[in-house]
Amino acid sequence: MKSVRIIALKKDRKRILEHLQNSSLVEVKHNEVPHEGFERVDTASQLQRFERNNQLLTQALKILDKISPEKKSMLDSFKGKREIEPEDLGSIAAGSPRVISICSKICDLEKQKSDYMAERIRLKALSAQLEPWGSLDIPLNTPDTATTAILIGTFPKMFDESALSEALAEEKDLVFDSEIFFSSVNLTCAVIYVPKAQKEKAENVLRTLGFTRPLNPTSRTPAEKIKRLAQKDKELSEKIDKTVEDINKYVKYRQAISDTKDYFVLRSDKYKVISELDQSSHTFILYGYIPECDCDKLEELCLRAADCIVEFSEAGDDAPVKLKNNSFTEPAESIVMMYSPPSKEDIDPTPILAIFYYFFFGMMFSDAGYGLVLIIATTIGLKVWKPDKSMRNNLKLFRNCGYATVFWGLAFGSIFGDAPAVFYKLFTGQEITMAQLLPWPILDTQKDALTIMILSIGLGLVHIIVGMGCKFYVCLKNKRYAEAFFDTGLWMLMLIGFAVLAAGMVISPVLMTVGEIIAIACAVGLILTQGRSAKGIFGKLIGGVASLYDITSYVSDLLSYSRLLALGLTTGVMAQVFNMLSTLMGTSVFGIIFMIVLFIAGHLITIGLNALGSYVHTMRLQYVEMFSKFYEGGGRKFEPFAVKCNNFKMKNSEEI
Amino acid sequence: MEGIVFAILAASLATVLSGIGSAKGVGGAAQTAMGVLSEDSSMFGKMLVLTLLPGTQGLYGFIVGFLIMINCGVLGGEVPTLMQGLAYVAASLAIGFGGMISGFAQGKASVAGISMCAKDEANFSKAMVSITLVEIYALLAFIVSLLMVISIPGIKM
What we know:
By secondary structure, chain A is of the alpha+beta class. Helices cover 60% and strands 9% of the residues of chain A.
């Protein structure tokens, strides 16, 4: 990583920034204050404008999505972004005002639609109020006649004719007639006729009964009014349909809208960078970081774009990190990055991690058939979707893991579990084991579990020692010799001693003695050196002896590798169970159909569960058992000034 | 001949006890994960991984149960003697209880990991690794049960 300073004239600012953004070579350095003699440009108002546009476009897209959802399959998320030429960006920019006006139209139409909907709800409520009056043949606000007062209204409880008459008869001398139109538990609609002279009297008694006049009296009969409301409702619903249709006409602009949205994201990124520049009256200076290998490319690019000065210098301590690996190890970068990018002190652990990752994943997934499925699925994915870099690397990671899986599957004699043997038995009736079917000697995960466990722990020992070897190398590189030889080297030797001792138990007593001698020598060495920072002879000795206690952590690390066996066995047994179940129905036509369905479904479940398990547990072995030996992490990832869009990417631009 | 009852009991114990652990662990984690997903459905992949982590105990128990069935005459092998049947029960207790209790514990760790990941997606790998720390104890129990189960038919009792 290098620091870079680009000095150029202000009139070329736009061109240079565009070139930098399209090439994604440089990360812009963030300085709180400008260098002396320079100023910053405030771009907040432009950024706000972009933000507003962005919100409008997002809202319009949401409306379009609601009205006509985009057809998207799960697999589309694997697809790479559309590539566009730099000229296409120009046409998107030119079309942006039009797209914005389209979007505001869409939003207006949507608002109109919701107004119509609200009106419809109001009319419905009104119509529901009138519903009980349906059979009344005079308007609700019918005036009194010359001699008779007409009281139309509702009571908040249930009355029938006789009960109402009784209630009204409470008032002495009242002459009346009543008609009930509707009656339910808490509502009675009635019309009461009284002589005009007794109107006040009647109203008094009615008031005590909770009689109320209708809220929205009209000069039409209720039935007629309900009909008119229904008519209005129909009109509104037609209007809503029309509005939806109008919005639907804009669906074809969906792509243009999302492109424009991305265009505003690009512009606001650019304006953010502009606000970071040191500017004088005629020139500007951009400070940034650039990977060492891209320096020449950048210089050429800038000089071609405009008159400018490009200076490189050593990057400081806070420089970001960009990993560089070959195509075999690169897919594992994401696993390192997920833990933490390497700090300045660290070496890039990706190559070592990649090899062990593929190998251990294969051992856990351990089935030739599943390995093939992984390889074929990821290869097809890479060919068909042409995914973007991060997805491409993930697919490649699983493809490489697939190769290792096939290897271990063959070693364990597992091809879709024991499918070949099961089918052989189903169709010929003869018992056969995978060991007999396959021409090479196999390690049966169930019968040779102990052997595989020892193998797993042996591989774990190699893994840990490689991790410590990295620590040894890092210490040597940073000239911390004591740490290299005493803290790391002695432990490495001691572990090797134990390994030789263990091997000697099986092979020959001579090896045992050799192992013992190595281990004891290392233990003595550790006692003598580990207390070196303590004061006084006793402090040193106690520190040294106490350090031997670390052996427990190494033992638990090693035991942890037994998961290689456990997960391998899980895959094998689950596959075996589904094979057994799928052949239960025999060889009839029905049996064969049953077998095919269950075989496919069962193995898909097994692949899903165990691929996930292998992915997680392999990662854990790397992070906990190996990284703890040497890797510090805590670096910062290189985030270049680049085209970061959801929809498209620039053709020929460097991918990040 | 009488051994088969105990062998079947052993297979059931191994499967059901560790299954209880996983069911409770995954269930709790799934509840929390759904809470997170209701806010941000784009985290589904990460949540799925964290939710499924306490699920392995059940699988381990199931495998031990299956191996017992293969060895004891239910799905093949010879019918065990009484003492062998009892030995199967003894062997299945390791993964049964180890799986159940580590399943509870891992479920709790998963819930915490999911909340941590919901606050900042960058914490995902840390959460994942911390949750798998619990797994080692289920794993040890499983290995012990497994080694015992596969060697019982060879021991004359």
